[in-house]
Automatic annotation (TrEMBL):
Pfam family, one: Malic_M
Entry's cofactor comment: Divalent metal cations. Prefers magnesium or manganese.
Active site residues per record: 111, 185
Protein family according to the UniProt entry: Belongs to the malic enzymes family.
Protein name: Malic enzyme
Domain Malic enzyme N-terminal span(s) in chain numbering: 88-271
GO cellular component, one term: mitochondrion
Domain of life: Eukaryota
Cofactor dependence: Mn(2+); Mg(2+)
Length: 604
C-alpha cells in the first residue's frame, strides 16, 4: 500500500551524515548516538574508539540478530522486558530496529500487559533513571530541573508525555513507577508513529502516592508522602504546564493515566491554551469509535432487513472512569454529528455502570456510586424517574435495556459473565458487539474465547490487550476469529505524529475524529467487505498491530490535513496537498547515520 512505499522512501532520506562532538566513552554511553559494534573503522579512529571495541564491525541486521538471540534465551516476559529496557538505555537505533522487526511479539513485552508488571515492581527493578522526574517537594526549583533536561542541552522537544501515576493501566496508584508508562507511551510514538525519540520527553509528576504498599516499601524510590491534592496539586500541575508552554509552545502535551477527575479537569483547563491530549479519554474514545464503526459495518452485512447505525445502538458501558466516559463522549459526539441529533438526545442511548451498579441521579447533584454529576458525567447519568431503585446490577441493566453494544473499562475481571452475554442475546441482539477493554489481560471483563463460545461465533469482539485468535466450530465448520486489539496505542501515535507534523496550536475533536475515520476505513473486516470477499467473518475489526506503523502513518496524514484545513497549523505555508510529502520526510526510522567528528557538532 501507499504508506508502505512512503516509509521505504523515507528510509532513503533518513540517514544524512551527522556531525557529532562526542568522543570515546561519552559517545559509547549515549544511547542516541551509540552504534556499538557498528561503528566503522574510520569512525572508530576519528572518535577515539578503536581500543574501546572488539575489531569486528557488524551491520545493524547482525546486531539485531545477536540481540534477538540474547532476548530469546530469556523465557519470562518480565525478564525480556528488563533486557529490552537495558538495550534502550544503550542504543536507541538497535532497540527500535529490533522491536520494529518483531513488533507483534515484542509490543506485549514493552507495553501492556508486561509493562504493568514492570511498573508494579519499578523500585525493585530500578537500574537507571530515564526521563524527567519532577517532585512536589522540589517544586521551587522545578524550572531549573526542567531546563537542565531540555533547553540547556539544546534539545528541541515536539512531544511531552506526562503522568502523575494515580491510575496506571488497570493497576491503580503506582507512584514514581509511573515514569515507565510515560516512557512506554513515548516509545510507541516512535515505534508506531515515527516521532523522533530525541524530540520527546517522558515526565513523572511525583505528587506522592496513596499506596500503603509503596509507602511501606524500604526500597521505594519515589517521594514517600501521601498524595498532594486540591489547590496545591493544581498549582504544581499548572507550573509544569506553563513551563511546557513557555519553552515548547508548539509541542503536544500528552496526559496519561491520571485519575478520572483530574484527567478531565486538566483536559478542560488547558485544551484551548495548548495542544493537549488525554490518551485515556480521547485516545481510547477514538480507537473504540473506529472499532465500533467497523463492527456495525460487519453486523450490517448479516442483517436481514434493517441496517444499523451509530445512532440505532443501545450502549451499556461498565466503568464510568476516564476510559468509559471518554468512549461515551466520543460516540455521543459522533452520533450527534453523523445523525444530526442533539447531544442530549444522543446521551439517552447510554447507560453507564460503575461499582454500585447503574449510574443514575440520586438527587442533590449526585450520581449513584460515582459522586458529583457536574462536569464530566453530565448527560450520562440516567434519571431516577425511569424507575431505577437501589443498586441496579449489570445483569439487570442488560435485561431491561437490551443493549446492542457492551463495553468494559472497569478493571472488573470476569464481569461479563455468560448470563450477561446470554441476556444480551435474549434481548433480541443478533450480533452482540462486546468490547472488554480493561488492561492488563488478566483484568479483562470476559475472555474472547468464552464470548465467542457463548454466542456461537456471533459476537463481534475486541479487547484492550492482545489475545490469540479463537478457533471454534460454527455450524459444523471450523472457523478462526481474529480478535482486534482495541487499544489507544493503535491510534494515538498517529494522532500525535499528525499534530506534531503540522505543529497544531490545539488538538480539536475534529482532528481526532479525522484520525478515527481513517482507522475505521482501514479495518480488515471492512476492507475485505469492500473487496467483495464473502468469507470475512473471521477478520479482526481493527488492523493487526503488525500493521500499526503503516496505519498510523495514514492516521497522521489525516490528522495533519485536518489541522491545515482548520487553519491551526504553525508551519508557514503548509498546504493540505503538501502534508503527505512532509510526513514522509519527517517520519523517524531506526537506521544509523554516518558520523563526522565536529567539535561544534551535536552533543545531546
Ligand atoms: N484499551 C484501551 O485502550 C484502554 C483501556 N483502559 C483500561 O480501562 C480500565 C479503566 O481505566 P481508566 O478509565 O483509565 O480508570 P479509571 O480509574 O478512571 O476508571 C475505572 C472506573 O471503573 C470503576 N470500577 C472499578 N471497579 C468496578 C467494578 N467492579 N464494577 C464496575 N465499575 C468498576 C471505577 O469506579 C472507575 O469509575 C483499566 O483497566 C485500563 O487499563 C484504559 C484506557 C485505555
Ligand atoms: C492503554 C491505556 O492507556 C491504559 O490501559 O491505561
Ligand atoms: Mg492509559
Amino acid at each position: 500500500m501507499a504508506a508502505s512505499r512512503a516509509l521505504q522512501e523515507a528510509r532513503k532520506h533518513a540517514i544524512p551524515t551527522a556531525r557529532i562532538a562526542l568522543r570515546g566513552e561519552s559517545l559509547l554511553t549515549n544511547p542516541r548516538y551509540n552504534k556499538g559494534t557498528s561503528f566503522t573503522h574510520r569512525e572508530r579512529k576519528d572518535f577515539g574508539l578503536t581500543g574501546r571495541l572488539p575489531s569486528g564491525v557488524n551491520t545493524l541486521d547482525e546486531q539485531i540478530e545477536r540481540a534477538y538471540e540474547q532476548l530469546s534465551s530469556r523465557h519470562d516476559p518480565l525478564r525480556k522486558n528488563t533486557f529490552l529496557q537495558s538495550l534502550k538505555d544503550q542504543n536507541w537505533v538497535l532497540y527500535f530496529a529490533l522491536v520494529s522487526k518483531h513488533l507483534k511479539e515484542l509490543v506485549p513485552i514493552i507495553y501492556t500487559p508486561t509493562e504493568a508488571d514492570a511498573i508494579a515492581q519499578y523500585s525493585h527493578l530500578f537500574r537507571r533513571s530515564e526521563g524527567l522526574y519532577l517532585t512536589f517537594s522540589d517544586r521551587e526549583t522545578m524550572e531549573e530541573e526542567f531546563l537542565e533536561q531540555t533547553v540547556k542541552q539544546g534539545r528541541e522537544i515536539d512531544l511531552v508525555v506526562c503522568t502523575d501515576a494515580e491510575a496506571i493501566l488497570g493497576i491503580g496508584d503506582q507512584g514514581v513507577g509511573g515514569i515507565a508508562i510515560s516512557a512506554a507511551k513515548s516509545v510507541m510514538y516512535t515505534l508506531i508513529g515515527g516521532v523522533d525519540p530525541a524530540r520527546s520527553l517522558s515526565v513523572m509528576l511525583d505528587v506522592g502516592t496513596d499506596s500503603e504498599k509503596l509507602l511501606n516499601d524500604r526500597l521505594y524510590v519515589g517521594w514517600k508522602h501521601k498524595r498532594v491534592r486540591g489547590e496545591e496539586y493544581d498549582q504544581f500541575l499548572d507550573k509544569f504546564v506553563q513551563l511546557v508552554r513557555k519553552y515548547y509552545p508548539h509541542s503536544l502535551l500528552h496526559f496519561e493515566d491520571f485519575a478520572a477527575k483530574n484527567a478531565y479537569h486538566l483536559l478542560m483547563r488547558y485544551r484551548n491554551q495548548h495542544a493537549v491530549f488525554n490518551d485515556d479519554i480521547q485516545g481510547t474514545g477514538a480507537v473504540t469509535l473506529a472499532c465500533l464503526m467497523a463492527a456495525i459495518g460487519v453486523a450490517n452485512d448479516h442483517a436481514h432487513n434493517k441496517k444499523g447505525s451509530l445512532a440505532s445502538q443501545r450502549y451499556v458501558i461498565m466503568g464510568a472512569g476516564s476510559a468509559g466516559l471518554g468512549i461515551a463522549t466520543q460516540i455521543r459526539d459522533a452520533i450527534a454529528t453523523a445523525d444530526h441529533v442533539s447531544k442530549e438526545e444522543a446521551c439517552g442511548k447510554f447507560w453507564m455502570v460503575d461499582r454500585e451498579g447503574l449510574v443514575y441521579d440520586i438527587g442533590e447533584g449526585m450520581a449513584k456510586g460515582v459522586g458529583e454529576i457536574k462536569g464530566r458525567l453530565e448527560g450520562f447519568v440516567r434519571s431516577a424517574d425511569e424507575g431505577w431503585k437501589g443498586d441496579v446490577s449489570l445483569l439487570d441493566v442488560v435485561k431491561q435495556v437490551k443493549p446492542t453494544v457492551l463495553i468494559g473499562c472497569s478493571t472488573a475481571a470476569g464481569a461479563f459473565s455468560q448470563e450477561v452475554i446470554q441476556a444480551m442475546m435474549d434481548g433480541g441482539c443478533e450480533r452482540p458487539i462486546v468490547f472488554p477493554l480493561s488492561n492488563p489481560s488478566r483484568l479483562v471483563e470476559a475472555k474472547p474465547e468464552d464470548i465467542m463460545n457463548w454466542t456461537n461465533g456471533r459476537a463481534l469482539v475486541a479487547t484492550g490487550s492482545p489475545f490469540p485468535p479463537v478457533k471454534m466450530h460454527v455450524d459444523g465448520r471450523e472457523k478462526e476469529f481474529r480478535i482486534a486489539e482495541c487499544n489507544n496505542a493503535l491510534i494515538y501515535p498517529g494522532l500525535g505524529f499528525g499534530a506534531v507534523l503540522a505543529k497544531t496550536k490545539e488538538l480539536t475533536d475534529k482532528m481526532i475524529v479525522a484520525g478515527a475515520h481513517r482507522l475505521a476505513e482501514l479495518s480488515p473486516a471492512i476492507r475485505r467487505r469492500h473487496g467483495k470477499n464473502e468469507d470475512h467473518a473471521g477478520e479482526a475489526l481493527l488492523p493487526d498491530f503488525e500493521e500499526a506503523p503503516k496505519i498510523n502513518f495514514e492516521i497522521g496524514v489525516a490528522v495533519a490535513e485536518e489541522v491545515v484545513r482548520e487553519g491551526d497549523s504553525g508551519v508557514d505555508g503548509l498546504k493540505v496537498t503538501d502534508v503527505r510529502e512532509r510526513a514522509k520526510e519527517k517520519v523517524w526510522v531506526p537506521l544509523y547515520a554516518d558520523y563526522e567528528y565536529d567539535p561544534k557538532g551535536e552533543v545531546w
